[in-house]
Write a structure and sequence with these properties.
It is a single chain. This protein is mainly alpha-helical. It has one domain. The chain is 79% helix and 0% strand. It has 2 helices and no strands.
Length: 100
């Protein structure tokens, strides 16, 4: 007597179905995990978004302020070391016309 589902053909079929189900379940689990990670990242970006933008703007303004301060100090040092630029007038501007 032979019972149904017993034998080499039935065992191979069950293993193939199990492997297919395992692959499908693994793929679905990976998709769910990736979606959960994306949701966590987006929540962090939303939370950081406005504050990060304001912080970046403040950083840019701070860098520009430091740059302007450095330029001011350097120009002041040049002025104090070199003194005012000599005034050179052309003779045409310093000469008085005869009719005056």
């Amino acid at each position: 007597m032979h019972t149904r589902g017993v034998g080499p053909a039935a065992g191979a079929d069950g293993v193939g179905d199990a492997a297919t189900r395992l692959a499908q379940d693994t793929a679905e689990l990976a998709r769910r995990e990736i979606r959960a990670i994306q949701d966590e990242i987006m929540a962090g970006v939303r939370r950081f978004g406005a504050g990060g933008l304001l912080g970046a703007g403040a950083g840019v303004c701070g860098i520009l302020a430091l740059w302007a301060a450095q330029e001011t100090v350097l120009r002041g040092a040049e002025w104090s070391c070199l003194g005012p630029a000599p005034r050179r007038f052309s003779p045409a501007l310093t000469h008085r016309p005869p009719w005056v």
